[in-house]
Each structure stands twice: as structure tokens, then as C-alpha cells.
Amino acid sequence: MSSSRNLLAISLVGLGLCACGGEGGPGQDETDTSGDEGDPLLELPEDFPAPAIPESNQLTAAKIELGRHLFYAEELSANQTMSCGSCHLQELGFSDGEVTPIGSTGEALTRNSMGLTNAAYASKLTWANPNLDQLEQQIAIPMFGEFPVELGITGHEDEVLARFAEDPTYVAMFEAAFPDASELVSFDHIIDALACFVRVLISGDSPYDRYRRGDQAAISESAARGAALFFSETLECHHCHGGFNFSLATRHANTTFTQNAFQNTGLYDIDGAGSYPPDNRGIYEFTFADTDMGRFRPPSLRNIAVTGPYMHDGSVATLGEVLDIYAAGGRVVAEGEPWAGDGRANPYKSGLVAGFELSDQDREDVLAFLTSLTDDSFLTDPRFADPSP
Ligand code: HEC
Ligand code: HEC
């Protein structure tokens, strides 16, 4: 488990702003430094770095507003029953409260709907795809993907575009967003506008943020003790959920390299040899390397109290259960249950998921800390809400 060792060498302790490090650990060069430090459209907290924004899709107010309308538009799905917002609800940190969602035509997805809080900073997108670096690439998947079908646009392209091209309100918004375009209503423009909207979904004003900026009264004493435990070498959480965005898989405009973001946390071992259930094998599905079995991206823990159920397959109902699994050093799925096995013994599990003892008070404290990461102003911000009356 050499990657766990590398993780240990890297100091992501506390809320040092850099998840990029400058010490230890191999990584890839990231040269995207096009972020605009002072972009007023982002409304960044002053202690957040600027996200990396591609030169080809700079933020404008008109693109963000078009993206917001498209995000909530059921016309974007072929059968007009579903929008991005059907699986990404603002009050749930843009997750959906389901174990796993159903697409517009009734097909079941195998992955839990991700929250979109601070997706602009994700170094790799989705639960386990080593090849998805940009929101513009990722957003095409729910639109056109066929395995499974989400919005189901493939085969209905002209029909879907015509709905927007024939709607004067949308035409005006496309004109404002893409003033010099020869082809106004196109999927490239739809994707760019959606990506701009998703990039401004920035959250950095939770009670815990106010506490670490100096307001001692912003969180309870219990939550403050929980934070100390979270950042301790006993619990080890911060190695994978550290930095300003509480995720190892973070990059920003000045990131020079990113860590191997994907980790196996010992949720399954269905054959005693480390296997995860079919369709949910982590980046192994791309690399076919045994050591990548069960490796998923550590999600940001911002707004985590409202984004349950948890993990890539939604198989853990509550934060308390998540904590109990880490305390046990992995999950035992009992005989007779689907995918039974002792995840604690998974040979590919990270060395950082080794288990620890927690008193009842400690457990309550860590849960209070995790709950202090809920940013109500983000969950109710009218800039991110469904614009339809
Ligand atoms: C049927 C439900 C569903 C719909 C509709 C849907 N999503 Fe998602 N979304 C998901 C799931 C599930 C994931 C995790 C996918 C995975 O890991 O394979 C996800 C992941 C994402 C991510 C990655 C977040 C991250 O941090 O990596 C983004 C961004 C996203 N969706 C945006 C959108 C947008 C924009 C739309 C509309 C074009 C959309 N989604 C439509 C269910 C949905
Ligand atoms: C070795 C890296 C690692 C360590 C250490 C670690 N995590 Fe995680 N965490 C992950 C990964 C990877 C996932 C996603 C796993 C999956 O879905 O299979 C995850 C998922 C989670 C989730 C669910 C996120 C969601 O959106 O569903 C929570 C909550 C969480 N971790 C909290 C913690 C806490 C608290 C600790 C310390 C006790 C901790 N983690 C330690 C890597 C880690």
C-alpha cells in the first residue's frame, strides 16, 4: 500500500490551504493556472484559492444565468421528465437523498448522486474516474450517457435543441451568453453554461469556517473537540479529507501537482481476495490493476450532514455509521446479506483505515464537527436556486 505511505508523508494537517503540497509523493504536473484570482462572479471567501478555470470557458454572468436555467430545465431530458436538479437538490448540497438514483427512462444507476459543493475544486470528477479532469467533460455524461441513461439525449439531439431554439426567453439568454456565436443554441454552449453554473457553487461559510476565522463561539465545544479528533493522528481523517475543501482530490488555479486521489476504505471484500461488487469496483474499472480495486475518490466533507446516504453506492445510511466503519477499520457485511464479506481484511485497503477507539463522547464530538460543516447560506442562496416561479 505504497500510496498510503505517500499520503503520510504529505502534510495536509489542519486547514493549510494547499492540497497540492510541495513535499513528498509522486504526482502529475498540472499546468492550468488560468484561474482569475479576483473574479467577483465567484464570491470566494478570502482564504480560498481561485479554482482552475479553462481559458476556453471563462465565467460570465450571462453564462452562469443561462446555466442555472438549463440546470433546472426538464426540457433538457429527451422525455422532459428530469433535469440536472432532479438528482442534485440545493437544500441537500446538490445531492438527492437517495441510495442510488433512477434515470429519466427508468434505468437504475449504480452510484450515489454526488453533492456538487465546490465541484470547481475537484481534481478528478465523479466517484471513480481517473480520466475526468474538467466539468465540461463530465457534464456530457448525464446528458448523453446510455449506460445507464440519465437525461437520455442521445438519438434526440435535434428535438432537444429545438425546444430551446424555439423559446424566445432561452434565445435571449443564449445571445447574451454567447454574443459572437455563429451557431447559437448548441450542445457545446449548453455544456459551457452548465459548467459555469456548477463552478460558482462555492461554499465556505459554515459555522466551522467562521470558527477557524476566529469566531470561537461559532461552533459548540463538542464540535471543537471533534475537529481536534478529526485532525488527529489517531483518526487520520484529514489525510484524505484535509485542506480547505476537506478532500485530498482537490486542485486550484496554482496547483502544481495532484496526489493519487483514489483510496480503498475497506467497505467490501466479497471473495476474500479484495473484490468489490460488480459495477462498483472503483478505478479498477479503468485500469484493471488489482491494486486499484475498490479505490474511490474521497469526497469533500463540506455540507456532509445533508448529503446522505453515503459512499459511492449509498450503502451507508448515516454519518454515525460511517464513523463506526472507520473506527472498526472497515466494514463487515454479514453472511446472508448482499455482498457479504469482511472489508476490514481487504488487502487493498489504505493503511490509514486501521481502526481506532472512540468513547461515546468522542463519537458525538466528531459528529458535531461534521455537522458544523453545513453552510446554510449556501443551501438557501437564491443565486443557485431554481429560477422558475
Ligand atoms: C439520474 C440522476 C442524475 C442526473 C439527471 C444528473 N446527475 Fe450529476 N451525478 C449523478 C451521479 C450518480 C453522480 C456520480 C456519478 C459517478 O460517480 O459515476 C453525479 C455526478 C455529478 C458531478 C460530479 C461531481 C464531482 O464532484 O465530481 C457533476 C458536476 C454533476 N453530476 C453535474 C450534473 C449536471 C450538470 C447534470 C445535468 C446535465 C447532472 N449532473 C445530471 C446523478 C445525476
Ligand atoms: C485513506 C483515505 C481516507 C481516510 C483516512 C478517511 N476517509 Fe473518508 N472517505 C475516503 C474515501 C475514498 C471515501 C469514499 C469511499 C467509497 O465511496 O467507497 C470516503 C468517504 C467518506 C464519507 C462519505 C462521503 C460521501 O459523500 O458519501 C465520510 C462522511 C467520510 N469519508 C468521513 C471520514 C472520517 C470522519 C474519517 C476519519 C475517521 C475518514 N473519512 C477517513 C477516504 C478516506
Question: What does this entry look like structurally?
Answer:
The protein is mostly helical and 389 residues long. It folds into 2 domains: 2-20 and 204-376, Cytochrome Bc1 Complex, Chain D, domain 2; 55-202, Cytochrome c-like domain (Cytochrome Bc1 Complex, Chain D, domain 2, Orthogonal Bundle), CATH 1.10.760.10. It is 30% helix and 2% strand. The protein contains 14 helices and 4 strands. It has helices at 2-9, 61-71, 84-87, 135-144, 157-165, 168-177, 187-199, 207-212, 221-230, 237-240, 284-287, 319-328, 360-371, 376-379; strands at residues 28-29, 257-258, 332-333, 341-342. A two-stranded antiparallel ribbon has the order 1-2. Strand 3 (332-333) and strand 4 (341-342) form a beta hairpin. Helix 2 runs antiparallel to helix 6, helix 4 crosses helix 7 and helix 9 (221-230) crosses helix 13. It is globular. The termini are far apart. 46% of the residues are buried. The structure holds heme C (HEC) (2 copies). One heme C (HEC) is lined by residues 235-237, 239-241, 263, 265, 267, 296, 298-299, 301, 304, 307, 310-312, 319, 322-323, 326, 350, 352-353. Residues 221-374 form the Cytochrome c domain. Residues 29-42 have a biased composition (Acidic residues). Its EC number is 1.11.1.5.
The gist of it:
It is built from 14 helices and four strands. The chain has 389 residues and is an all-alpha fold. α2 crosses α7, α4 crosses α7 and α9 packs across α13.
